[in-house]
Amino acid sequence: MLEAVRSAGAEKVDLPSIPLFESDGDFLANFKKSLIANHAEVLFSTSRIETKLLISNRAETLTTVISASNEFKEYKQAKTITDPHDLKNVDMAIVESELGVAENGAMWFPETALPHRVLPFITTELWVVIKASDLVENMHVAYTKNELASGYGVFIAGPSKTADIEQSLVIGAHGAKAMTVVVETI
Questions:
Q1: Which residues neighbour 171 within 8 Å (Cβ) at sequence distance 6 or greater?
Q2: Mean pLDDT score of the chain, rounded to an integer?
Q3: Fewer CB atoms inside 10 Å of the end CB: C or N, the chain?
Q4: Which residues pair with 110 in a beta bridge?
Q5: Is residue 163 within 8 Å of residue 170, measured between CB atoms?
Q6: Quick one: CA torsion of 24, 106, 67, 43, rounded to 10 degrees?
Q7: DSSP state, 1?
Q8: How do beta strands 153-156 and 107-110 pair?
Q9: By C-alpha distance, which of 114, 98, 117 is closest to 106?
Q10: Cα separation values, 59 from 49, 63, 72, Å
Q11: Mean pLDDT, range 114-125, rounded to an integer
Q12: Over 90: is that where the pLDDT of 118 sits?
């Protein structure tokens, strides 16, 4: 059948070019606005020390804090956990993203950033650290980035939510109940 299609003599046509749909350029303001609309909290930091202080202020009242980042060694490291069942009662997970999308607040997490794929979904609170310089204006630009090309990855744009039951919005129905994003403006 495929040979019949090939021999039909259809003319080859180039794929259409897709415009990048440029925004007003204020990535940081758009990113914050999108995250707030997605029910996430946004904090700003001017240094890694300030970021660590913001995280420790929240973490000190919690029992189980897991970090997927080597930068936050004061917390249990996700890569040292061999049995995923040990993630069943995570109060707070700390992850870093190297790509954020201003138009919708989505942040990209490749497999290398998540030693356990379930971590951002099984935790009660998800804390994400991202540099302001790692923001792009929209998904069209994000898809041009090489980081998206390898293996597993996921975009996350806020805490878990659903409105399936009687169109009533429920936050934290099947994942993190809260999300805090620390944007480093270093």
A1: 39, 159, 160, 161, 177, 178
A2: 91
A3: N
A4: 153
A5: yes
A6: 40
A7: -
A8: antiparallel
A9: 98
A10: 15, 8, 12
A11: 94
A12: yes
DSSP state of 17: P
Bridge partner residues of 65 (DSSP): 92
Nearest to 103, CA basis, from 143, 46, 163: 143
CA–CA separation, 121 and 12 (whole Å):
44
Between the alpha carbon of residue 71 and those of residues 42, 100, 107, the distances in Å are 20, 19, 18
Which token pair is 59? 């973490």
Domains of the chain: which residue ranges? 25-184
Contact call for residues 31 and 105 (beta carbons, < 8 A): yes
147's tokens: 């980081």
- What does DSSP say about strands 170-171 and 161-162: parallel, antiparallel, or unpaired? antiparallel
SS3 110: strand
Q: CB under 8 Å to 58, separation ≥6 — which residues?
A: 92, 125, 127, 180
Which tokens hold the place of 115? 């030693």
The CATH superfamily holding the domain 25-184 is NagB/RpiA/CoA transferase-like (3.40.50.10420)
- Identify residue 5 by its one-letter amino acid code: V
Confidence of residue 147 (pLDDT cuts 50, 70, 90): low
Which residues make Cβ contacts (< 8 Å) with residue 167, sequence separation at least 6?
none
Structure tokens at 2: 């495929």
120 three-state secondary structure? helix
